[in-house]
Design goal:
Blueprint: E1 2-7, E2 10-13, E3 18-26, E4 34-39, E5 46-51, E6 58-60, E7 68-73, E8 78-83, E9 92-98, E10 115-116, E11 120-125
Parallel strand pairs: 2-11
Antiparallel strand pairs: 1-3, 3-8, 4-5, 4-9, 5-6, 7-8, 9-10, 9-11
């Protein structure tokens, strides 16, 4: 089993930046794709970004392309989401996800991941 713990959320003004971190422990982290999802109040959880097990491939939802960057440090068992030019519509609880099939390139689908963090709140004020 892999355990995930997010950090780095907070309150920021529109146009500002935040860096989310996800610390992984348990199963061999480097074998698994990782992803970030988010859920705003009253809305379904949605895909934000994913990164392949090697870090060689990354994926983003259209609304965050050019503003968010996902990265990973397999030596430290860490995944990051750098969020720039934040907008009020980015306000949500952000979840780190991982696990699933080893050596996967990454997926937009939440069902591809079997480990989830507790979430970290990101609030962007206008």
């Amino acid at each position: 089993q892999v355990q995930l713990v997010e950090s780095g959320g907070g309150l920021v003004q529109a146009g500002g930046s935040l860096r989310l971190s996800c610390a992984a422990s348990g199963r061999t982290f480097s074998r698994y794709a990782m992803a970030w999802f988010r859920q705003a109040p009253g809305k379904e959880r949605e895909f934000v970004s994913a990164i392949s097990w090697s870090g060689g491939s990354t994926y983003y939802r259209d609304s965050v392309k050019g503003r968010f960057t996902i990265s990973r440090d397999n030596a430290k068992n860490m995944v990051y989401l750098q969020m720039n030019s934040l907008k009020p519509e980015d306000t949500a609880v952000y979840y780190c996800a991982g696990g699933g099939v080893p050596y996967h390139s990454g997926s937009y689908y939440s069902t591809a991941y079997d480990a989830w963090g507790q979430g970290t709140q990101v609030t962007v004020s206008s």
